[in-house]
Amino acid sequence: MAVGPGRKVSIIPIEGIRLAAVKSHIRYPNRLDLVLVEIAEGSTTAGVFTQNAFCAAPVRIARERVKNTASRYFLINTGNANAGTGPEGELAAVACCDGLAEIAQTSSRQVLPFSTGVIGEKLPFEKILVALPMLYEALSADAWQSAAQGILTTDTRPKLASTSFTTANGSQANISGFAKGSGMIRPNMATLLAYVFADAKIETPLLENFLDSAVNNSFNRITVDGDTSTNDCCMLVATGKGSLVITDADSEAARQFQSELNAVFEQLATDLIRDAEGASKFITIEVNEGASEQECLAVAYTVAESPLVKTAFFASDPNWGRILAAIGRAGLSDLDIESVTVALGDTLLVSKGAVDAAYSERAGQSEMDKDAIRVQINLGRGKARTRVWTSDLSSEYVRINADYRS
Amino acid sequence: MAVGPGRKVSIIPIEGIRLAAVKSHIRYPNRLDLVLVEIAEGSTTAGVFTQNAFCAAPVRIARERVKNTASRYFLINTGNANAGTGPEGELAAVACCDGLAEIAQTSSRQVLPFSTGVIGEKLPFEKILVALPMLYEALSADAWQSAAQGILTTDTRPKLASTSFTTANGSQANISGFAKGSGMIRPNMATLLAYVFADAKIETPLLENFLDSAVNNSFNRITVDGDTSTNDCCMLVATGKGSLVITDADSEAARQFQSELNAVFEQLATDLIRDAEGASKFITIEVNEGASEQECLAVAYTVAESPLVKTAFFASDPNWGRILAAIGRAGLSDLDIESVTVALGDTLLVSKGAVDAAYSERAGQSEMDKDAIRVQINLGRGKARTRVWTSDLSSEYVRINADYRS
Questions:
Q1: Rounded to an integer, what is the distance from CA B268 to the centroid of its chain?
Q2: A219 and A98 together in one domain
Q3: Which of A125, B33, B274, B377 has the CA that lies 20 to 30 A from A43?
Q4: Domain check: are A198 and A154 in the same one?
Q5: In which region does residue B18 sit, left (phi positive, over 0), alpha (psi from -120 to 50) or beta (all else)?
């Protein structure tokens, strides 16, 4: 189940990036489950990682390595998260990097490992080691679709996004990326697995700023079930092979790059929600007129993660009472319910803390019947605002997560 | 769906309490949906109420009235929550109380209204007014079962508890009560609807302390879906008709009364979880060795409310990785994962942040197959502890909540 048909995206290759995906039988036979990304020398890399205290072995390694060494390879497996695996898990991840480094004749520290899949089982690293030569041989500038396919777990389709733009002074730049994830999604300063590549030239500190800003408006504003993964990682690479060079964060070129980057991230993040586990609706929750962004986020996430609100969306039921009840328990001090309004699309549901006089069940129903639903909550106590994206809670979600290991 | 068979409880009548339940067709024909409790003059009453900012009209009225006047009647309807109904909703609730006061020849301020059911629809108070004379006529000392039945919504069975005890100096006391609620359950300093009655003589301030303490160890330690109702209320009445008189909070009699009261509350609270919407498992989550009770609660509720953990329980899947991931995102600062252990019943799952060496999938599976599951989490950083009860997340939960209004 997923919301709407998948988009067919044509990806602009990024000079300096080659990719490959192979079948290494990590968990299932006959599926792409091992992906390699090669990054040209001279590139810069920034990363954000899960805040979960139980972060996976590969996360601990990648986070450390990206800080200290220029990254040359991302080695990504699906089918096994290598999380909750203790010191042994770290050894397994390092062994895979060592194997690749030997083949590619580079330092193991320039290889970053990433894993996604079932938590708590030993990584079958021997299978990965066996597959590495074939994987390395397969590297090509065009393998974006199979790389995006090869990192999926319960996702029903790959997520890719790409953009190309020219700055005022004639520099040209391309950005392309892919991501995965459809459950255990409430990133916290990080995301599931997302890899975005640009051919601009950008030094690491500036690249890190671009990444933080893009993540905060995209992956850090989505939630499926409130669960934060042990393996979330989001990587941004600038190869510097194109004509755009950004050195000043306050330049027009920087603003344009950030804006294009945000669009790519937003596309990937919303694609994750559209393909969320069991999702039949794509829901945007906007909270306006808050006293602070923090309280807007508290309201937005409380509504977005309320099982009762989510099951009402699944049923296309304009049960606004559940939305009100969620707002009411979001922990805002001195919330004056008289100043709260709630709208569904263009239909005003609630004003002055009660159902709006002009509201009709028919109008509410017609908004709820849509695939994409916008909930607008105005708190009437300030100027802060935020927006999060989420999905509904369906019996399909339960089926997927009850069956996942079987 | 519910965990295990219902208990058949024989209830000890409480002198000074009479009850009645009738069918008033508020939402469905042919079901008990209107309950009256009569409280003898000279009784004392304490109440705790929902912390939801959008509390229902009857909650606002009952909370105010119980502070200022001796309560003589509880008038409780199911089928309609009278929440999100604005000033009109308050007028409707008051009209019902006025109607009863006229029949019973008492002051309307001595009548406390309670409602449960669908949020946001107008209370059909005319139906209630029509039914009041019949309801008043039906009052009897023995109608506990039908009163417990008449407050239910999606519950599949009534919840009652009763106890009787004698103090060291020969005073005898009885406590009986009933409760409802099976979804939108995460009480916050209050609960769903619960009414408990004792025949002891206890002045109001002391009675309030007994109530707070009992609620904190029972209704405030359960969660089904993390949603806090707009209508939660828990009332405790002491009629003073028995031989036990408690005047000193530090007396042996007070300690005994508190302990017996706690047992009644715990029985009602755990019965709510056993009958939670779609529940197939009764889950106890104990968190020990925390630095503070607050952080133990944060971990306990994060685990108890994780949709991924809950669907794993539904599937009887010993997917301890999901439990670890939930602990890891509970927001504890400087959590040393090496000192965390997790056990399922008597089976150690996790030690030193990874799966325990002696753990076998078979042992985990055998714990998971049980109806009642105990998760024990030791944080290894202090002496605080807590315990919460919850249920699993089943496709039945989704079905119930997607269908609720249809």
A1: 7
A2: yes
A3: A125
A4: yes
A5: beta
Q: How confident is the model at residue B406 (pLDDT cuts 50, 70, 90)?
A: very low
Same-domain check for residues A238 and A290: no
Query: Does B55 lie in the same domain as B173?
Result: yes
Considering only the beta carbons, identify the residue of B306, B324, B402 that sits closest to A84: B324
Q: Are B348 and B323 in contact (CB under 8 A)?
A: no
Amino acid A188: pLDDT: 41
- Closest residue of chain B to A332, computed from CA coordinates: B53
Choose the final residue of a domain: B249, B274, B299. Answer: B274
Test B314 with A402 for CB contact under 8 angstroms.
yes
pLDDT of residue A186 exceeding 70 = no
Work out how many domains chain A is built from and give that number.
Answer: 2
Q: Are residues B267 and B289 in the same domain?
A: no
Do A132 and A217 lie in one domain? The reply is: yes
Same domain flag for B182 and B252: yes
B interface mutation test: which of A192, A344, A349, A398 has the most B CBs within 10 A?
A: A398
Of A89, A315, A337, the CB nearest to B54: A337
Judge: A119–B89 Cβ closer than 8 Å, yes or no: no
- Checking ipTM against 0.85, whether it exceeds it is no
Judged by CB atoms closer than 8 Å, whether chains meet at A227 and B329 is answered as yes
Which residues of A are identified as catalytic? 191
Subunit contact A84:B321, Cβ cutoff 8 A: yes
Taking CB atoms and an 8 Å cutoff, what residues of chain B touch A298? none
| B342: nearest Cα among B327, B362, B329, B361 | B327
Q: Which has the higher per-residue pLDDT, A404 or A71?
A: A71
- Partner residue facing B307 (CB), from A118, A226, A403: A226
Q: B367 CB contacts (<8 Å, ≥6 apart)?
A: B318, B344, B345, B346, B347, B373
Range(s) of the domain holding residue A258: 17-274
What are the DSSP E strand ranges found in A23-135? 34-39, 44-49, 73-80, 111-118
